[in-house]
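Hi team,

As requested, here is the filled-out complex form for the FE2/S2 (inorganic) cluster run. I kept the field names the same as last time so the parser does not choke. Let me know if anything looks off before we queue the next batch.

— J.
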Amino acid sequence: MDGTTPQVPTPAVMAALAAYQPGRSLPQALYTSPEAFAADMAKIHRKHWLFAGYGFEIPNPGDWFVYTVAGAEIIFARGRDMKVRGFHNVCRHRGSRICLEGHGHSSVLACPYHKWSYGLDGALLLDTAKEFGVPKSELGLKQVAVADAGGLLFFSIAENPPDFSEAIETIGRKMKPHALHRVKIAHQAEYRVKANWKVVFENNRECYHCPTNHAEYNLTAYDVERDRAVMDPSLLPAIEAIVAKANERFAKLGYDTGDASSNMTGKNWRCHRTPLKEGFVTQSLDGKPVSRLMGDVKEWDSGTLRCTVFPNFWQHTNCDYACAARLTPISANETLVRGYWLVDKDAVEGKDYELPRLLEMWDATNSQDWVICENQQAGISSPAYEPGPYSTLRERNVAHFVDWYLGEMRG
Ligand code: FES
Ligand SMILES: [Fe+2]
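And here is what came back:
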C-alpha cells in the first residue's frame, strides 16, 4: 500500500457498513473501531479534496507549510511562478522527511539527511545519473493535486482525484468580495476533541441542538428560526421575506445571493450566503462590527457566506472577519480541530479589533460543540449504544452527510 491506494475495508467494517439502518445514526464500530478509522482514511481522506490552509499563509516564492493528515505529510510551497504546489514530504533518496517544521521559507527544499535538494517545483537538483544510476528526472518529489478556491487551498492525494471543479469555481466566485488573499490570521486555536471526526461533522450539520446549547450563536443566526419554520410551515413566509430583503441588498452589492437553508448544494460541498439577524452587521454578540471591513467588502453586513466541504472544512465569512475550522482525524475517537479567525491584513489589534471580542462568539460556540461531541462519543462507546433515529425535519443534513459517507465507503 503506497498511501494513496484505497484499502478495502476489513470484513468487520464491511459488516458494520452493511448493518446500517437508513434514517439512523451509524453503527457503533464506525465511530469507535481502529479498523473503521483506517478504512475512513483510505476511502475518504486519501481520496477526497481536503482543506489544507490559505494561500495568504505562503504569500512569497519559497514560503511553505506542512499539513499532516491520514498518514500523509504534505508540503505546500509557493513556486517562483507564484503557483502553490503540494508534495509528499518524503525524500526520493532514502525517504527522510524534508521539511521538519510546520512552516518556513527556503529557496530550495533540502533534505536534512544527505542534502538532496529539490526546487520549489519539486524537481531534484542533484545530478544522480552517474553516481546513483537513476536520472534526476525520475526522482522529483511526489506531487499531489492542489486547487485554489478564492484563497482556500484544497488538495487531494488520490492518484485520480474526484472532479471538484464546480466546487472550486463556485467557492472562488462567491468568496471573491472577501479577497482572502488580503487577509491575515488574527488568531488560531488547536482543539483536541475526544470524538470521531464524523461525530464532529454531524454536529456541524444540524442546529436542532442550538436552542439549548448555543446562546451566543443563536443571537446572530436564523438557524433556530429556520428550524422552527421547518416544524411549522406557517412561519416560513417570515423567513422567506427576510431572505428576499437580504438578497436584494446582496445583489445590489454584487454578491451572489443565497437562502436561509444549510442544505448542501453539491454532493459534498456548499457555499452560500445567508442573512444575519436583523440589525446585525456581523456575527458578534451585539451585532456590531468586531474588526474593520475585510477585503473588497464596502458596506457593513454582507450576511454570512457559509462554506462547507466534506470531510474536513467549514467557514463562516462575514463583512469584517471569517471563522473557519479544519478537521484532522487523529484516531477513531480523537479529532484535531484547528480554528482560524481571519481579519483584513491591515487590521491592527487594539485599534481595529480586540481579540477577546473577535473570538467570543465562535470560541464559545466551538467549545460548546466539542463538549457535546465528547459526550456523544462517550455514549456511543458504551455497550448500551444502538443507532438512534434522525429527525426527518431537523436532522436531514446529518442524514445527508451519513448517506454520503456510506456511499463513499461502500463504493
Ligand atoms: S534521505 Fe534525503 S538525502 Fe538521503
Ligand atoms: Fe453546534
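Two things worth flagging: The longest helix spans residues 355-380. Confidence is low (pLDDT under 50) at residues 1-6.

Thanks,
J.
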